[in-house]
Design brief:
heterodimer, A: mainly beta, 4-stranded antiparallel β-sheet, 52% strand, B: 112 residues, mainly beta
């Protein structure tokens, strides 16, 4: 199906474990973004990418790692999960950085 | 850096009431401005946008005008419906770095 998909939709993991959230888009959009959504904070940018092999930090990058070896994929890895990383994570893509962004359905991550 | 400030919620209205959500921004370049909406359990979707000063974005009865002199992009709807109940996010994308930055979100509940 065309669009932007995130997997898994729900994940429970333990403190200290590594976990990877997947994001795949079928439009060949240049820009991709990862946000976390927390009550009272809205959406905060974790990392973004302007093209394959180009990534940059956002507002809250600590504890996260990204890669973008292919245009269509932009996985987000929590190297050693902490409870403070319990959140809803959204991936988004756009043709250019200042055009409409299309969002995935989100991944609800719980770290216990 | 760039930032977006929007009025805090929650906002509760009766059907057919007038809705205004205030949004102001700071940006280093010349931003594009957006309103996104998030319905319960879903990702964000674009509601409307404006790319230059004095532009008016409109969609589904919602309107917002890009005011450079007051650095504002307030969202308005003249007569809300129960189906407008959602979280509304103001966002900007700066022409310098293309990061999409969001406000904290405003939860709107419309009662029949």
């Amino acid at each position: 199906d065309a669009g932007i998909t995130q997997s898994p939709r729900y994940k429970i993991t333990e403190t200290g474990r590594q976990v990877t959230l997947m994001c795949h888009q079928t439009w060949s959009h240049s820009y991709m973004f990862w946000y976390r959504q927390d009550l009272g904070h809205g959406l905060r940018l974790i990392y973004y990418s302007a093209a394959a092999d180009i990534t940059d930090k956002g507002e809250v990058p600590d504890g996260y790692v990204v890669s973008r070896s292919k245009t269509e994929n932009f996985p987000l890895t929590l190297e050693s999960a902490t409870r403070s990383q319990t959140s809803v994570y959204f991936c988004a893509s756009s043709v250019q950085g200042n055009t409409e962004a299309f969002f995935g359905q989100g991944t609800r991550l719980t770290v216990v | 850096g760039n930032s977006v400030t929007q009025m805090e919620g929650p906002v509760t209205l009766s059907e057919e009431a007038f809705l205004t959500i205030n949004c102001t921004y700071t940006a280093t370049g010349y931003p594009s401005l957006f309103w996104y909406v998030q319905y319960p359990g879903e990702g964000l979707q674009l509601l409307l946008k404006a790319t230059k000063a004095d532009d008016k974005g409109s969609n589904k009865g919602f309107e917002a005008t890009y005011r450079k002199e007051t650095t504002s992009f307030h969202l308005e709807k003249g007569s809300v419906q129960v189906s407008d109940s959602a979280v509304y996010f103001c966002a900007l994308s700066d022409s310098d770095d293309y990061k999409l930055s969001f406000g904290a979100g405003t939860t709107v509940t419309v009662r029949a």
